[in-house]
Each structure stands twice: as structure tokens, then as C-alpha cells.
């Protein structure tokens, strides 16, 4: 009996080590056998309709290699649930097909169902980024304005000094905003690059001075504002929600857009982890709030209650040492310095 038990134990340990035994994805109750994708749906919303843990969507999704862009779904597509070896699988029937030439099909990517509401996140992302000190300090800047003005508006001429890459004609005007520090190590993580406006190149660089014209402002451009090559930063609709591949340690929400004190669903937050720490676009993280310190009347001492899970967030932009995430679910008001952990 001891030998048999030992053999079974070794077999189970071997299976666990090799990854053969994995917790099955759990479906919600009364999930639909079939679902027709509608305009306005999001992948996260559909995931939440089927799964108790929506970030495990890739484990449910059955990619069909015979379908163009198998990771994308579109309005009119039919999702249907099947079972393989006791495990649920979600399959897809294309609801549309545009033929242009024999053996060629093109599906407009901008019609794909996004992971999260791009109409809310996309415009915000175009106006915000996190830059490290070296990147910011080494960028071009406004050294003067026409007629020695201190501030400039659309149509005004400004003069820039510093590196202007060859071939770049359009520039973003940014200003260093909030400074982000790691709350544990106190390390500088970067600066918020505030969107001030745009400018277009008027003349080539001569005598280290470049002439530009302001084309757009959110507020008046000032002397010393930075000039960065304009980036077309478009939020990709194709990434999939998933848990981080690394174990998060000492991760926190360190800032929130708008300076509000309470954070709720669809709020955009800054996390003190980025690409350097293995945090990538599409990673879903859990938000925890620290447990209260209470007095134990029986033992007559203080005891720390465990952290309480209070929400879920998804990373939609990852920089070197910090990331932007959107709160997808909140069971209570969240706050800056709430903890971020693996879901």
C-alpha cells in the first residue's frame, strides 16, 4: 500500500510539474450556448458573460486557423459553446466575409470588437505618456517665441532648440507634469508628459535653431516646453486579457488621472510596474485594499486583518518602469496606494 501510494504521489507530482493538471476554467451559470456579437460589445464584456475569471479568456477561446484574423471578432459573428474532454471551448462562425480577389479576403480591423471601450481610452492615450528623465532632458524644447512672447497660441511662430530628427514634420508640445516615484524603493519611475498641443516644422535646422508654427493647444505653449516627434499612438483592439506571466511584488496604484480621491470603474490609474517588471499590455491585475488593524478583545492585542480584494484592472499601455491601467471592476471605492496583485 505504501509503494502504491508513493507511486500515485510521484505521478501526481509529475503531472503538476509538467503542467498537465491545470485548474479548469469556470463558466458562469446559465451561459448562452450561442451568442451573436453586437456592435458595442467588448471582449472583456463577452469574457465576463461566460467566465467567472474573464482574464482566462485565452483558455476558453478556440482559435480557428481557417478564419482570417482568428483572434478578432466582429458584429454579426456567432459564438457557440462546445465541450472537449470535459473542458468548455468557445468557437466562432464568421457572420461576414468580404471577397476582393480570388483567395483574398480583407476584414477592416477598425470594425473589430475591442477588448475595452476604445472610444473612452483611445483619445486619452493619445494625450498622455510617461517619460524617463533622460528621454525628457535630451528632447528639443521651445527656446523663444515670435516677438518675444512668453506664451503662444495656434498660428504663432515658435523657435526650438535641440535634436529634430530628419524627416519629422509634426511635433507634440509637452510639459513635464506629475513625477512618479516607487513607493517602496523611492526610485524615480518617470514623469507624466502633459499634452500641451502640436506644432509643424517651418524651416530646417540652421544654427541650432528650428522654426515651427503652433497648430493646436490645450493651453498656451510656454518657453521650455518640450518638442517631441508626434507619435500615432493607437490602442490596439487585438490584444487579449490574460493574467501576468510574472508574480507581482510591491505593486501599487500610485496615481489616478484627474486628481480625484476615489477611484471607480473606467478610471485610469498609474501602476508602479512596467516592461522592466514583466507587465505588458493586456495583463489583468487584481486590486486589493489593506485590511484594518483591529483590537482583539479576547487576546487583548491588535491584529491585522487580511487584504481585501476590491477590483480588477487591465494594463492598456506599458512603459519601461510604469504602466497605465483602466479599472474594469470595483466592488468598493478604490484609492491611490491600493495594492496590485496577480488575479
What does this structure look like?
This protein is mainly beta and 343 residues long. It has three domains: 23-113, no CATH class; 123-229, no CATH class; 251-341, Beta Barrel (Thrombin, subunit H), CATH 2.40.10. Helix content is 13%, strand content 37%. It contains five helices and 22 strands. The chain has helices at 2-18, 43-50, 57-60, 118-127, 133-137, and strands at residues 34-36, 78-84, 87-93, 99-101, 104-105, 128-131, 140-145, 151-152, 157-161, 170-181, 188-201, 209-217, 221-222, 226-229, 251-256, 268-271, 284-289, 293-296, 301-304, 308-318, 323-330, 339-341. A hairpin with a 4-residue loop joins strand 18 (293-296) and strand 19. It is globular. It starts with a helix and ends with a strand.
Please report the number of helical segments.
Answer: 5
Helix/strand-derived category reads mainly beta
How widely separated are the two ends? 40 Å
Number of strands: 22
Low-confidence parts, pLDDT < 50 over ≥5 residues? 1-21, 98-109
Number of domains: 3
Portion in beta strands: 35-45%
Order of strands in the sheet with the most strands? Answer: 7-9-12-11-10-14
Please write the string of helix (H) and strand (E) elements. Answer: HEHHEEEEHEHEEEEEEEEEEEEEEEE
C-alpha-based Rg, rounded: 25 Å
- Give the % helix: 10-25%
Overall pLDDT:
82
The largest pleated sheet is described as: 6 strands, antiparallel, barrel
Q: Which descriptor suits the 3D outline?
A: globular
Amino acid at each position: 500500500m505504501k509503494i502504491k501510494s508513493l507511486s500515485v504521489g510521484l505521478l501526481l507530482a509529475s503531472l503538476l510539474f509538467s503542467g498537465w493538471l491545470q485548474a479548469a476554467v469556470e463558466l458562469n451559470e446559465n451561459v448562452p450556448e450561442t451568442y451573436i456579437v453586437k456592435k458595442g460589445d467588448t471582449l472583456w464584456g463577452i469574457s465576463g458573460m461566460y467566465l467567472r475569471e474573464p482574464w482566462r479568456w485565452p483558455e476558453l477561446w478556440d482559435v480557428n486557423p481557417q478564419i482570417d484574423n482568428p483572434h478578432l471578432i466582429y458584429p454579426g459573428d456567432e459564438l457557440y459553446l462546445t465541450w472537449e474532454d470535459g473542458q468548455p471551448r468557445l468557437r466562432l462562425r464568421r457572420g461576414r466575409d468580404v471577397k476582393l480577389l480570388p483567395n483574398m479576403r480583407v476584414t477592416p480591423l477598425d470594425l473589430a470588437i475591442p477588448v475595452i471601450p476604445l472610444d473612452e481610452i483611445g483619445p486619452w492615450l493619445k494625450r498622455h505618456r510617461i517619460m524617463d528623465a533622460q528621454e525628457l532632458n535630451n528632447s528639443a524644447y521651445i527656446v523663444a517665441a515670435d516677438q518675444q512672447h512668453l506664451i503662444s497660441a495656434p498660428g504663432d511662430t515658435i523657435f526650438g532648440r535641440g535634436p529634430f530628427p530628419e524627416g519629422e514634420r509634426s511635433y507634440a508640445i509637452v510639459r513635464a507634469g506629475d513625477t512618479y516615484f516607487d513607493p517602496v524603493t523611492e526610485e524615480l519611475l518617470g514623469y507624466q508628459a502633459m499634452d500641451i498641443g502640436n506644432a509643424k516644422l517651418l524651416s530646417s535646422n540652421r544654427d541650432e535653431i528650428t522654426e515651427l508654427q503652433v497648430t493646436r493647444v490645450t493651453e498656451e505653449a510656454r518657453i521650455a516646453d518640450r518638442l517631441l516627434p508626434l507619435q500615432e499612438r493607437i490602442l490596439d483592439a487585438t490584444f487579449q486579457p490574460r493574467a501576468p506571466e510574472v508574480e507581482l511584488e510591491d505593486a501599487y496604484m500610485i496615481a489616478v488621472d484627474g486628481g480625484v480621491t476615489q477611484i471607480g470603474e473606467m478610471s485610469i490609474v498609474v501602476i508602479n510596474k512596467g516592461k522592466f517588471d514583466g507587465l505588458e499590455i493586456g495583463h489583468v491585475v487584481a486590486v486589493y485594499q489593506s485590511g484594518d488593524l483591529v483590537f482583539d478583545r479576547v487576546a487583548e492585542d491588535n491584529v491585522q486583518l487580511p487584504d481585501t480584494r476590491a477590483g480588477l484592472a487591465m494594463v492598456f499601455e506599458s512603459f519601461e518602469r510604469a504602466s497605465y491601467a483602466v479599472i474594469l471592476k470595483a466592488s468598493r471605492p478604490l484609492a491611490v496606494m491600493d495594492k496590485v496583485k496577480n488575479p
